[in-house]
Amino acid sequence: MQERDFFCNRDGLKIYVKEFMDLERKAEKIPAIILSHGFGGDSVGMEHYGRHLAQKGYACYCLDFCGGSLPGIGKSDGSSLTMTIESECEDLMTVLHTVQELPYIDKENISLLGCSQGGFVSGLVAAKCKEKISNLIMFFPALCIPDHARLGALGGASYDVQAVPEEIVCPGGMHISRRYHENVVNMDPFLEISKYKGRVLVIHGKKDDIVPYAYGVKAKQCYEEGQCKLISVEDAGHGFNEQQDESAMVAVEHFLNHKRELLTIQVIVTGYEVRQEREGYKEAAVYFTGYCHQEDFKGCIIPEGVDIQTQYGDGPVKLRAEYTLVGTDRTGQKCCLHILNQKKGEYYKPEITTDSKELAFLEEKDLTAALEGFPGGLTVRIFG
Fold it and tell me: Which of 32, 191, 311, 338 registers the highest number of CB atoms within 10 A of its CB?
């Protein structure tokens, strides 16, 4: 894995970029992903995504927006008092142009991935550079920013919109300018981002109290039918924990590979017992029920669902979940899905058998599952 630092120049300002890439692939044209941080953040907060996706064959570029980071972090030039949504769009377009010119990059396969304000900026840049962006991925995109400006609440601050101060002091340490406010106060973010006509993935937490989940729903609705996939994360706020991050990366990988989420199963834990426990070994059973309501299948987990969890010493806990769902397929025919899910190598690899002709394709597909815990249960996403 190669990690390389470099700078781009925009109007005399240096923009810091960190590249992650598998050196073995440098002889061929590599798809690229440019990753954008949120308000007050920096490239370091995006590096775990960059490293992960680089291991999957992408050249990844994490940038620091000019003036977009809290004091003491970020390696780009500029002050937060000169940073605006427009200036961050210009930064991202500068990095995009630089990445396009790298000789080992596939210019026809460049994606944008952004979190929060970086997601909003990525959406705007994708709309400005339509034909240059293959895929747009937004995690909890801050499409609320124009609304916050109209309320005098940018960055969590409180100010009079009839007399906007030259300097707006935000809780947490960011200071922004009246120009930032003026840049977005009259903007319709959904109209702007909808000008992008490529593939879109939005991943948003249902408990986000900074950018409410409703903004993610409205983002999906602003694009053309079938253009945008919205994944809701049940227990996530404004940001993801480690397990949610892992699930998000599985979703991103499958999205980029044009694979879809076939089943989303909500699991509700009903019981727990330790079956065996001796020195250096523990075996427990987790009992559960749950449901799935999607286009291909609607039904419930019958009560016999069980996850056998084993652990040797301080090693990892191994899971082996087996359960049956009873319901109807897309034609309305009654059917069953029997699922055995366990980890094989890096991923959970579910095996499905069914008595439905409509769903028989699930038996042949190479499936991958991602797990997201929430109080009292978890979400199981099955991709293929």
Answer: 32
